[in-house]
Every structure is written in structure tokens, then in C-alpha cells.
UniProtKB/TrEMBL annotation:
Keywords assigned by UniProt, alphabetized: Coiled coil, Cytoplasm, Exonuclease, Hydrolase, Nuclease
EC number: 3.1.11.6
Species lineage: Bacteria, Pseudomonadati, Pseudomonadota, Gammaproteobacteria, Lysobacterales
Full protein name: Exodeoxyribonuclease 7 large subunit
Comp. bias (Basic and acidic residues): 1-13
GO biological process assignments: DNA catabolic process
Quaternary context: Heterooligomer composed of large and small subunits.
Domain Exonuclease VII large subunit C-terminal: 141-453
Reaction(s) this enzyme catalyzes, per UniProt: Exonucleolytic cleavage in either 5'- to 3'- or 3'- to 5'-direction to yield nucleoside 5'-phosphates
OB-fold nucleic acid binding domain residues: 28-118
GO CC entries: cytoplasm; exodeoxyribonuclease VII complex
UniProt family annotation: Belongs to the XseA family.
Amino acid sequence: MHASDDYPTHHGGPEQGGTPPRHILTPSSLNRLVRDLLEDALPLIWIEGELSNVARPASGHLYFTLKDSAAQVRCAMFRPKSGWLKFKPVDGMHVLVRARVGLYEPRGEFQLVAEHMEPAGEGALQREFEQLKARLDAEGLFDAARKRPLPRYARRIGVITSATGAAIRDVLSVMSRRWPLADIEVMPVPVQGREAPPAIVQMLRKASASGRYDVLLLTRGGGSLEDLWAFNDEQVARAIHASAVPVVSAVGHEIDFSIADFVADLRAPTPSAAAELLVPDALALHRHLQQLKQRLTTLEQRRLQSRIQRVDHLLARLQAQRPQARLARDRERLLYLQRRLLGVQREQSQRRQATLDRVRARLQAQHPNQRLLLLRRRLEALAPRLRQTIERRLERERLTLRQTGRALHAISPLATLERGYAILFDAEGKVLRSARDVAVGTPLRARLADGELPLAVQPPAKRDEPARK
């Protein structure tokens, strides 16, 4: 019986009559065992708490402590996941972490290995956003079939936004530059805070019921998820859906998406982009009109030219009805037919000569000398391929032979002897399979990997004698 390297075996003293072996762990094997138990028992978990002792050494890993009012736990976030964070973790920040529970073996310290981290407040808002989005989508508020096209030349545009924000300045600047003919009416509402959603809903309903506007623009500048939250309100979404006038949503920057964007008839990435979508470009329209004018002039010139050509053609037909003209045409036709007949005769002669040349070439190709030459060339081309095929077949057979040799060596008794085992033979050369078959004093032979040893069976040691090592 061989003792395990991880769990050394110790026997009890003689007064205990040989107690069962004890498995003694080393600190490293204990920590490894505890780590395996923790990782097997606990899958990925979500944990929320306050950051402290945040450190990012030159390695790029992130180390920190996550705590609450009663306890704390050490955490680590390794590269490259630590580089994927969209915010800078600092002490005191409240975060939501997805992590694996583990143990740092060298120090035996319990820790969490973070896979993902997000600010706790923003994460809650994001979950609320996704839930509302899924519910409204299931109700059909986002269906593309219900979205209405925008008027090509809007005469009156209602802009629902903050009267003092940067968004309205961008919108007015772009629209006045592109299409000064549009009548822009600003309908001021708060775009942030608790009072914003009901004010936006009331203004949408008022603008829809007035019948004054060709299209409505709901917009504001960029900000955090909390800043844009008024445009993720369910009542605002339903007011946009119920509007009798097409609604364009331009909330935040290009990377920001709100519930209002999904419900609106059109989503613009920025307020300036929304202004460009709502009104045409006067300069581009002027160029287009100039192009149409040029096309109209060209068409009139072509029509006049066509009529002049038709008059000339009719005049030529009248002149062609005279007898002299008909005789001239017939003479020209006769000459044409003569040239065509000569051409047909030449073409037939050339075809027959080509056919004769092909037949002569085929007869030459069937000559025995030509066929023997082709077969000799084919034989010369096949000879290297045959040698390569034979060499590949021999190489496969050699590989199979080597693999079979290794397999036979792996199951050979000699290979077992090389790993430290031995075979016992009695005086007659038979293999011993049980200790009961041998009497005390019987000579034996032990077969090892590199030779044989003579042995003799001795009586067992008395119980009051110390055991030999």
C-alpha cells in the first residue's frame, strides 16, 4: 500500500492496536480544498455595496473592498475586464457587482473575483428601463407599421423643450439656416426632474389637440441616465403614441436611447440632426430647381430638333418617289446582291477548306506513332506519382508500426517494472500471487526492471518490537 503525497499516512502506537490512518493536510492543500468547495457551492452572484480601498497598480488589475454597515469583503477585478468599465471606480461609490466567490490561496483570504461592475443607482434605472421597454413593445407601441411619414415641407413646427437649453439654440440655428420659411414655435417645458414628465405630457396633448402644427419635435441635450429619465416615463410614451401629429424625438447624444425614441415616428441622434431631418436645405432645393430648369430646356431643344429631323425625312421621301431615284436604288441593290453572292461563295470555300484541315489533323493524331508518344509521356508522368504513393504508403505503415510498438510497450510487464514494481517467483519459477502460498524460510526471486534479487521469507516481527521502517 502506497501513501498519498497530499495526505501522509501515520499509524498509531502498539497500545492502540494499529488505529486507522490519519489524513494530515498542509496549509496549501487546505486552502485549495476550501477554494474548490466555495467555487463549486456558489455560482456567479450579484452583490451591492460601497467601494473602499480602491487600487489599480501598473498591472492593470483592480483591487478594492466592498462593504456595508456591518461587514466587508476583499475583491479583485483582473484584466481585461477591469479595462472594460465605463466609469472610474472611487472610494465611497455605491456599486453593483457580479462576481465569483473564491479564496486567495497564498494568504488564505476569502475574496470575490469580479466579472462586471456598474453604479448601483444607474443599474436599477437601466433594469427599470428594460422592463418598461419590453412591456410597451409587447403592447405594440414600437411597431414600425404605425409610424407616420414626416411632411416634406413643414410650414409650422412645434418644438417641445427647455426654453433655455442648448438644444433649442441648435435647432433654431439649423432651421433658420436651412429653411427660413418654416414657422417655429417653442413650447417650453422642464426636461429634467419630477415635474418634467407631467409637463411634457400636458404639452403634447395640447399641441396635438390644437391642430396648428404639421410636426412636433421633442428634444433636449445630453446627460446621464438620470438626467434623461423624464423621456423614459410611461405617460410620456403613451402621450407620444396618442398624438394626432407626427412626433420626432431627439434626446441626448447619438449613443443615448430613450423610450420616447422608440415610440416616436422618427428618432434623430441629436437635436441638430432632428432639425436637418425636419426641414429641407434651401440651397440644395435651389440647386435642384436649377437642375430641373436645365433639364426642361434640354428637353425642349431635343423636341425641336426631332421635329426638324422629321420634316427633313418627309422631304427626302417625296424626292425618292421619282422613277430615276427608283432605278438608282434598284441598281444599288443589284450591286449589293452580287457582292453578297461572291462573299457567300468565298465563305463556303473557306469552310470546306477548314473542314478538310480538321480531318487531316485528326488522321495525323490517330497515327500509331503519335499514340505511342502520348502513352510514353503519360507513363513518364505517372511514374513519379507511383513512387510518391508507395513512399506515403510506407510512411503510414512505419507510423502504424511505431504506434503499435508504443501501445505494446505501454501494456508490457517490463513497463510496469520500470515504474517501481516487482514480480516474485518461487524456487520453481512460478509467479507468487498470494502470501498464503509461501512458508517461512522459502527462497524467492524478485524480478526488477534492471535485474533479479534473491529473497527469503522471514517470520513476522513480534508485537512488542518496534516496526521496521
